[in-house]
Amino acid sequence: MCGAGAASLVLCGGAAWAADTATVEIEAITVTAQKRTQDTLDVGLNVAVVGAQDLQDRRVGQVSDLVAFTPNVDIKENMPGILPVVTIRGVGLNDFSATNNPSAGVYVDEVYLSSLALMNFDLFDLERMEALKGPQGTLYGRNSTAGAINIVTAKPSFGGLQGRLAAGYGNYRTSELEGMINIPVSDTLALRFAGKGVKQSEGFFDNRLIGRDIGRREVGLVRGQALWAPTDKFEALVKLEVQKSRSEVGGPEFFGLLKPPGAPAGLVCPGSSGCMDFKGYTDTDGDPFAGEWSVDPTYDVDQRAATVRLTYDLGWADLTSVTGYVDFKRQWGADTDGGPYRQTDFVERDKISQISQELRLSGATEATDWIVGVFASRDRVRMTYDGSLQDLFNTKLLTFTDQTSKSAAVFGNLEWRFAPTLSLVTGLRYTWEKKANVGGDLDLVSNCPASFLSLVPCGAGPVTLAYIDTTIDDTNWSWKLGLNWKPNPTTLVYGSISQGVKSGGFFSGVATTTAQLQPYQPETLIDYEVGVKQRLSSLGLSWSGSVFYYDYSDVQTFIRDTSGGLPIQRLGNVDEAKIYGLDLDAMWSPPDLPGLELTAGLGLLKTELGAFASSNGPVAKGNKMPDAPEVSFMVSAAYSVELGENTTGRFQIDGRYADDMFKDAINDPLIATASYWVWNARASLALPNDWEVAVWGKNLADEQYVTQGVNNLPLGVGFRVYGAPRTFGFTVSKAFQ
After folding, report:
1. The whole model's pTM is what?
2. How far apart are CA 407 and CA 356, in angstroms?
3. CA dihedral 235, 159, 57, 490 (to 10 degrees)
């Protein structure tokens, strides 16, 4: 018998409220989080899903836009407009090197992106995005201690000729054009072509040194897919993509170490606007989007990618093969002193190639769903960056890395329904990985008197400051044990324990001795989690909640290294960290208010980092993890109304809140982020014949908030990176079918 209260809500699925109440049909949300198509109510993990229409309406153009849809996720840009790093529930990698792997695995159509450099791409013509929270080592493998992000592109279909064309214009002289066409060539062959172009002719940033704005964008992307289904048992999907960018990097906000001569008595340095560097430079305008930057802002990218997915129905099981290939080249510059002098200016060039192959067999019986598979990959990263240090150290540097990684794994997952409402979930993965790295740093000693770094005589040739030629091997186990309980068809209660591992690697930054290039170790995370999901049609409500506790060991983060002539911050390991928190999400379409859709999400997070050594000396246990706000919140509201025959108006607004957070493990207040809100809105008019006109705005309040910062005050400088300012514009689109 159903009564009132929380227990009846879970056990009875809202039946107690059904009487005299209109019922709202709640569409089931489909995901492939467990490498098979499922309703989210059958998936015992916390997964946030954003569908194609929401992605389009809320102008999700890059991976970093996912933060607007789910709490306890932070995605920051290490330099203005580029180098996004994903942190989920406080777990992320505070680095931007192309040789490093993200802690949150990013997958595009089931193909893993092996390098942080590959995260910076525009999104278009998508079916959905999924954010899986917590370690996903069993099915997704290495480098998913934080979780995984699945990006699923829209596929060809046999449902008829379809197309869409959209054009728009916004402030900062931004033009956009996007289109797609789906062509069913025959009963067995369908094609889909899509493309996107963005031209932003005015950047967000005013560079007073060169007398013009920077941060301009010119991006073009094209995708072609072919789906061939000659029989009802076999299907082949081939995808080819090309991306080309001729854009610019923005400039960071400068802050200095020293109080200038004649400065007001109340000026506190470091930390205040008006403090100067060792060259006497100050920036007092208070505008984080204006400065004097000496680096060429060019950001050029050329990428080609291919994916082949084959499926065959064996009768008793499905055989799936996924092959992925990426070829990527990039050049970009970073003014890490934030000022007009060549103190720590760098120009980086990256070449990345990766190939991966996954083969899996999956099937189901009356009581089980199972999957077994093997995975292999190889990626090579070649990176150089030229360091212009003439005005500080009287020299130039050349840093170089050539890293090859090979990985292989075997995995299995079994879900056993041992009782009508209970299922046991077990998963296991064994991974082998090998990384070979050749790299180092050269002092080019280009000026006189002698370079401060190498202290060699004037006129000497290049001097090797650091060099490494080393290979590391690692084997590890990832696993999961879970229990799912479905007391009724619209409710899932689950609990699980799972372990994920992120592989070790090599620091590829500036080093002054070989000891600073020694590899860091793998990190391991064990997640203890319980959660509830429910869909209540009588209330028009879907909600989910989970609580979790992380036992985190050998945490990869920046540590102090004083083994060389200059102390540096390099990637290393901290013994331990503890993380616990809560995720809560809800979607509500009130039955008595048709056309209204409300969404909200709340994230609570507590983090504690173990003791470690830093550039400021020993740090005691108790610091907070970087990029881990204790409270995060997101909310959205949308209302649709019929305005006439075949005409619909729609208005939506969404906002996200992030609490104060630190940007490094030291918990440096100079580069911390204060709490902030970001609000976005869109109004659209759907007209006859599938036309739509929309106006939109992002960061409507023009909130200024820090996404990243670096404190290099031993060198007299530091910088902060800010989120994008207010943008707005309009879009006109036409669908064809």
Report:
1. 0.93
2. 9
3. -70
